Amino acid sequence: MLFTGATLAALAWALWAAADPSRVNHDVAWHQTLGAGLFDGGVFGVDLIDVNPPWIFVAHAVSRGLANSTGIAPLIMWSWLCVAAQAGSLLLARRPLAQLLGSDVAADVLLSGGIIGLVAGAGYDFGQRDALVVALLLPYGCALALAAEDDTQHSPLWRALAAVLAVSAVLLKLHYAALV
Q: Binning pLDDT at 50, 70 and 90, where does residue 1 land?
């Protein structure tokens, strides 16, 4: 099965590439700092001051908690969580994308390449909210494109997951709400 083999290979590469600490830029480092402060009991507006919406810092606090409990470096844990979120979102988009493209093979190739592209294409900006927003909105966007044709193709659970990803994407960067 092309999807499984190609996706696992792409995912293995992405996890390896994302673990490179030289890829971390100043925004991700700042989000890590505020996430650690939140994890350690800091309060927004008192101990933690930033103009960005707090969802990104909550995500970094979860990452910090997982890093502390597993012994994995916090930046590597964050990078791996980003890869997992992007890969999960792409996996959720696979079925509707195959329907839109009219080909399972085309969807498999595109999604496997997408996993690599989201990591390699981001370069120094990997882990930034922008790439996460794009990936998290993909299932929702595919569902919108299919809705024009036939919206009975997806289960209520699939629709709920796509909606949660889309809402999470908007919460990461509120001015992207215009995309939804």
A: very low
